[in-house]
Amino acid sequence: MQQLNPKTKPFTARGSKVERCSSCLLQARVCICKYKVSHRSASQFFLVMHHNESYKPTNTGRLIEDCIEDTRRFKWSRTEPCSDLLEALDDEGIDPYIVFPEGEGYEERMVEYEPKAGKRPVFIILDGTWRQARRMFRHSRYLDAIPVIQPKVSRSSEYRLRKAAVEGQLCTAEVAATMLQQSHDPRGSEILSAYFSIFNDHYKAARLSRPLDDDTEAKRLLLDAQKVGCVK
User: Fold this and answer.
1) Which range of residues forms the domain containing residue 218?
2) What is the pLDDT of residue 166?
3) Which CATH number fits the domain that encloses residue 167?
4) Can you tell me the distance from the alpha carbon of 95 to that of 87, in angstroms, rounded to the nearest whole number?
5) How many CB atoms lie within 10 A of CB 34?
6) What is the pTM of this model?
7) How many angstroms from the chain centroid is the CA of residue 49?
8) Number of structural domains in the chain
9) Is the Cα torsion angle 25, 29, 31, 34 positive or negative in sign?
10) What pLDDT score does 118 carry?
């Protein structure tokens, strides 16, 4: 079984000594789990994760798993394709796309999103740093037959927990929110964006030892969503 469980290995880098929530991996005092909302989208996400990202509290891929139902996570390997991923991609009921910026050498693979009758769109996100994601894209020969779609970025990234290597680069959760909007699911995009905003604020509050603001627009949105029965 090669599908990745991101919570089976302890986090041992700087900050590893603090008490953390076992689910969201943030410091216990800034846990965001009470804001989780589960959204059923017409689209699905496959997160193909670099092993260095799996256990970092700053990784935002888990936010997609928390908010968007049926999200799946797989471990990336250059030499040994994940059998679970290959099996999932063999499903004739899905319409898969690799989410990646356009570039030289694969122009013929670039497509625009168009819904296909009877098929569920699946967006494959290469979850790692920009450098890791480029390497994953180049060396995943077993994914060469899958079309590539570029997220239509309309704003700058709000992610401030790591320095972006490329101007305008979005983090994993922001990419997913963009693709939800692009695939005509504004509600899913709104929910994921709100959860990401809370994650961003809480992580910074913990790192800077600041108090939390319990009455933000993002928190009100998700708590209201929970009241109508979308609780995860």
Assistant:
1) 38-106+115-223
2) 55
3) 3.40.1280
4) 14
5) 12
6) 0.87
7) 10
8) 1
9) positive
10) 96
